Amino acid sequence: MSADSETLKILLDKGSKGLGFHIRGGYDNQHIPGDTGIFVTRLKEGAAAHSDGRLKEGDRILEIDGVSVRNVTHNEAVSLFLRTGNTCQLLVEQDAERKALARATSAIQTNSLLTSPSSSNNSMFTASNVILATTGALALSLITLYLARKRGWNLFRR
C-alpha cells in the first residue's frame, strides 16, 4: 500500500441479506496482473455494504476482523468472510483498483521498447529486450481486456 492511499475502517452488520459484495483477487488468482490484493468488484443492492455506502467497487480489502489479507489466496479471504459473526470489521484502501491499474500501466510503459532510449541503437533485438517487450505487451493486453470486461464491453460478441 502506498503512502498516499486512504484507508477506512468499516463495521458492517450482516443482517438478513449478508454483507452483500463480491471479491476477486489473491496471490493465486490475481485480479490485476502483478497485484495480489483482494478487491471489491460488485455491491449487491440493499445488502449491508450497499446500505452503509462507504465500501465501493474498486476498494482493496486489507483486513477482515483484524486479520490481514494482504498476501492470501482468494479462498483464504472467502473463508475469513464466512467465519465472521453478525458484524464484520473491514480495513479497506479506497480506490485501490484504479491506483493499481495506473501503476501497472506505468510500469509497462517504462519497460517498453517503444519508450526505451536504447531502442534507437542496434541492441534493440537482444533476447532480453524481446522478452521484455513481449511480457509488457502481454501484460498491457491483459489490463486492456480487464478494463473492457469491467466496463461491460462485449468484444467477442458475434
Question: Summary?
Answer:
By secondary structure, the protein is of the alpha+beta class.
Question: What's the CATH first level of the largest domain?
Answer: Mainly Beta
Number of helices: 4
Return the average pLDDT rounded to an integer: 80
Report the count of strand segments.
6
Give the SSE order as H and E letters.
Answer: EEEHEEHEHH
Main sheet properties: 6 strands, antiparallel
**Can you name the CATH architecture of the largest domain?**
Roll
Judged by helices, strands and strand pairing, the structural class is alpha+beta
What is the CATH topology classification name of the largest domain?
Pdz3 Domain
Task: Name the shape in a single word.
Answer: elongated
CATH homology-level superfamily of the largest domain: PDZ domain
Q: Level of helix content?
A: 25-40%
Low-confidence stretches: none
